Amino acid sequence: MSALPLHLDTPLFRTTKAYSESGLPLWLKLDALQPSGSFKLRGVGRLCQHEVENGAREIFCASGGNAGIAAAYAGRALGVPVTIVVPETTSVEVQLLIEATGASVLVHGAVFDEANAHAIALAETRKAAYVHPFDHPLLWEGHGTLIDEVVAKGAEFDCVIASVGGGGLMAGIVAGLQRNGLSHVPVIAVETEGAASFHESVRAGERLTLPAITSIANSLGARQVASHVFELPNSHAIESVTVSDAQAVAACLKFADAYRILVEPACGAALAVADVHAGLLARFQNPLIEVCGGIGASLAKLKAWQEELL
Does the model's pTM come out above 0.90? Predict the structure, then answer.
């Protein structure tokens, strides 16, 4: 097995000032171009490698889609079988994509939490490795490599805008900032209304569990963030904001028109900030947006969502 990371050092480029309502040039880190279609390969690949290096011969993971694709890709690269447990909300198209990438798919439970509990139980029964999609220090270490790459390219940035689901990406970004001496750089954490478990928890001052996910951005659909993620604002400057589904979809279509790259509404949420919350960015000069990607979108789907949300 190669010790090389499974993810790519993805392109980084800057928009024009005219691209968004913020009037700022935006750095875009294009993790939509990872082989698995999203940033998830950074952390999931790192964790899968670790498990295989330590003797794992089989891997189980629960996922609504993107972590599953990443684990499937990693398993294929590492030569071990992978089973992904998805909740009933995961579309048939995404299930087929996971299978096409090389993993077995099991459907279990109405929500991620139920799928996850089943994946843990199966892994224990089969003495296999269990890979969590967002709550593990090695995942965060892997996700933080996106910051390492931006710093290595010499790009100066004064805030990072990223979408939050379970919070693994944000935990990784904070870890990456801290290990590069950038603890002063704030993170703007974005969720869609209806999937805003972090935002609601911050407002309440306690880690809440949402009663349900009502956003179309179902890959942001963790009803509760990881406990480590809830504690992050105590040690790093994090601002929590939300956008509507319609605003996230509009940002996806705008991005596709401008750069010919498709991303999910979960990623569109981060891209929408420079338009929807332009005032929030007024104190910055060089925002960095993590374009996290996602395999659950097509042009037809985005346009259908746009019509539905009008």
Answer: yes
